[in-house]
Amino acid sequence: MDIVVKHRRAIVDRKGLMDSLESFAAGEPGPDALRAHVVATLKQALADGRAECRRRLEMDEANGRETAAGLCHLVDQIIRVLHDFTLAHVYPVMNPTAGERLDLVALGGYGRGELAPGSDVDLLFLLPYKETPWHEQVIEFMLYLLWDLGLKVGHATRSVDDCVRLARQDFTICTSLLEMRWLWGDQALFHELKDRFWREVVNGTGAAFVEAKLKERDERHMRLGDSRYTVEPNVKEGKGGLRDLHTLWWIAKYVHRVEDVADLVAKGVLSADEYRRFIKAESFLWNVRCHLHFLTGRPEERLTFDVQPELARRLNYTDHAGTRGVERFMKHYFLFAKDVGVLTRIFCANLEEDTRRRPSKMKLLRLSRRAKALEGFMREGDRLNIATEDQFESAPIDMIRLFEVAQRHALDVHPQALHLITRSLKRIDASLRNDPAANALFLSILTSKKDPETALRRLNEAGVFGRFVPDFGRVVAQMQYDMYHVYTVDEHTIRAIGILADIEAGHLAKDLPLASEIIHKVVSRRVLYCAVLIHDIAKGRGGDHSVLGAEVAMRLCPRLGLTAAETETVSWLVRYHLLMSNTAFKRDLADPKTVHDFAEVVQSPERLRLLNVLTVADIRAVGPGIWNGWKGQLLRTLYYEAELLLSGGHVSVGKERVAGIQKEIAEHLKDWKKADIDAFFKRSAESYFLSTPAPCAARHARLMREADREEAPLTLATRIDRFNAVTEVTLYTADHPGLFARVTGAISVCGATVVDAKIFTTNDGMVLDVFTIQDADGGPFDRPERLAKLSTTIEQVLMGRVRPREVLARQAAPSKRTSAFKVVPRVLIDNNAATKLTVIEVNGRDRTGLLFELTRALFALNLTIRSAQVATYGERAVDVFYVSDLFGHKIRHGGKLKAIERRLTDVLAPKPAPSAAAEGGTRTARRSATGR
Description:
about 950 residues; Beta Polymerase, domain 2; Hydrophobic Seed Protein; 6 domains; 8-stranded antiparallel β-sheet; 4-stranded mixed β-sheet
C-alpha cells in the first residue's frame, strides 16, 4: 500500500523549516511574536506543499495515489516540526519522567498514508498512563496551531490501556487503530500499543469484525441508494467507491495479518490479475477524488453533473465520434465500480472458504456438510454453488444455467461460484451465444415470473449478461449526460424489466390500473419482455437509438428463439417505443387527428396493448419522481381513444359527437331549465365540447352562470385531483389580448408548474381558461396558503399591480448543475399534426420564467394560443402550443413562419444569470414526461 513520494523536499523541507524557526527563536522574541511566526511559517509551507502536489497532479507528473501520499508526507513533516519546536521552545522538559512521554500516531486513512486534499487529519496523542498537566499544555498548543493552519484535525488523547479497552468495545475505534502509523515521539509506546492491539483485540474476533464491517457497508449502500449506477455517484462512500475497497482491505488486514494488498496474492486470496484490478480501480478512484477536491476547493465526494465535464477534461477524456468525453469518463467510472463489486465477491468467497478450512469453525463445517445436490449444482443453505472447481470450464452453459436454477428455487448465488465465473468469462464465446439451449435458459430467466430483475442484475454483475448478449454489453455502464436519466442504460433496462414483472404480478394495480389490466390480454409475454430488454440497447452509437435498436432486435430475437412474427413485433416496439409518450405528452388529445395519426402507426389492438405497458415500464424506470398520475391519465386517454379506432369503432367528429356530449352534460345539469342549458350550449364552440369531459363542462357551466349573475369581473376556481396528481385552475373573465401570457406568468411567480392548458372563448366575448398545474415535486398544488396566494397573484397581475417579468427576473438563476448542460434551441412548426391549428414545438434549456417568455412572444406575434402541453426532461424544456392567427386559421405564410421561428429561438437562447441571484432555482419545477 505504501507509495514512494518522489522529490520530497520539493514538497516540504523539514530541516529547512526547523532551521528557520530555530533562527527566529534564537532572537528571544515574546510568546505572541513567536507563536505568530510559527503559524505564518508553517502555513506558508503547507500552502506551498499543497500547490506543488496539485501542480504534479494537474501536469500528469503524479497520479491520485501519489498525490494523496504526497499530501500525507507534507502534513507529517508539518506535525513533526511543530512537535519538536513545541517541546524545545514552548513547553520544554529537561528530565522527563516515565509518565511524561508522548507519541503521535496517525489513524484511519491518514494512518494508511493517504490524505485527499480535503480530508481530515486523524491524530492520536498516545500516553503511557493518565494525562499530566504537561501533556495537556503540549497537546492544546499543538492542536490550536494545527487548527490555525487550516487543517481539519480529528484527535483523541488516550493511554495504551484506554486504546485497547475502547477497541474491544467499538469496531469503529478498532478499525481506526488497525491502520495506525507511528508519526513522531516516543516510538516505544507505539510498539507497545501495536503489540497489545493484535494480541488482546484482534485475536479471536475475526468473524465478528468481518460481520460488523459487511453490515456497515450494506447500511452505507442502502443510505446512498444501493446502486453503483446512479449518474451522480459518490466516489468515496457510494457502492463501488473507495470505501468499499477500504472495507476489503480492513477485513484482509484483520483476518490475514497482511501489511500490503500484494500479500493477498501470496496467500491465495487474490490472483495476480485480480490484484492488478484492485490497484487499477483504487488508482482510478484516487485520481478522480483528488482532482474533484482540488476542482471544488472542498472535500466534495459526489460527482455532480456540473463537475463531470471538467473532471473528464483533466483526466484526458476527449470527445470521439458519437461519444462525448464526459460520457466515456463516466462509463469508465462505472466499469471500475463494477470491478470493485466483482472483487468484493471474490474476496468474500475466499474468506468463507478459508474460514471453512479452520477446524475451530465447527458451525460452518456442519453447514458445509449439509450441502445438497441440486440440478448439477450444490445447494448450501439459501445459496447455490458449483459442484466442481472445473464446472464452468467443462460446461460453459452452466454459467447461465446457474442463474436460472437459482431463480427458480429462489436462491442466492454463492460468492465462490461468482468468483469462478469471473475467471471463466472467456468461455462465453460465439459457440455458446449460438447454442439454442443456452438461449432458451436466458429467455427463461428474462421472462420468468420469479423476480427477473434480481436474476438479471446478478447476471450483469457477474459479467455474464454483457458477454452473452454483446449488444447489451455495449451499454453496460453507459450513462447519458443529462439531468433526466438517473441510472446508466443497463441499470435502467433491468429496473424496467422489474417494473414490468411487478405490473404483471398485480403489485402496481393501484398506481397503474390500465397497464395492470391489459398486460394479461397480451398474446405474447416473450415479445413484451424482449422489447423492454432491447428498447435502449442501441444508445450511445451516434444515431437514433430507436431505429438502430430495431435492427438489433431483428438479429437478436431469432437467436433467443422468438418466431419471425414475434421478432417483427419486438422490432416494431423498439422502433416506436417513444411514440405513445410523445403523442400523449406533446399533442392535443382532444384533436381527433392526433388519435388518427397515432392509430395509423400502431395499426392493431395487440400492438397498442404492448406499447402502453412498455411505455409505462420505461417511464417508471427512469428514476424516482418521474412518474405521476397526470402522465398516467394522458396515456390512458390516448389508449382508450386509439383502442376505439383500432377495434373497428371510430372517433366521431362534428355535430354527431357534439350532440352526444351535450346530452351527457345535460344529465349533469338536471336542476337547470332547458332554456338555460341551451343558452350554455350556444355560447360555446364545438371545440370546447370535443375537448372537455361532461362532468367538467357541467362544473364550468355552473361557474359561468354564477359569475354572470354576480357580474364578477374575474372568477377563479380550483379543483384538486389527487389521483392524477394535479390541480385544475379555471379562470373566467372578459377576453383581452395577452391574457394567457399574464396568467402563466402569475402561476410561475407562485412556484407552480403548468403541465396542460386549454383556452376557450365564448361567442359573447368571455374567455374560459383551464390550467392544469402541479407543485415542484410533481404533485397537486394543494396547500391552502399557496392556493390563496395564487388567486391573489393572478388578480394583481391582471390588474397590472404585479409584473411577472420583473418578479421572475429577480428570482434565482439556473443552478450550476443545470448550467453545465448545453441544449441547442429548436423550434418545430407543423401544419399537419392538427386539423385546424398550427402546432409549434419548442425545445431549449429550462430556466425560470421560460414558459411566460414564450407565451409573451407568441402574443407579440399576433398568435392566439388554443392549448398547450408543457414538459421537462431533466434540463430540457419541451413545450407544445396549438395556435392560430387572429382569424382562427392556420399560419401558412412562409415569411410569418420564419418570423415565428426566429422570435422563439431568440427566447430560447441562454440568458446570462443575474449577478446577485442565488443558485438553485430552475424554471418552476416542470416535471419529466417520457421514458427517453
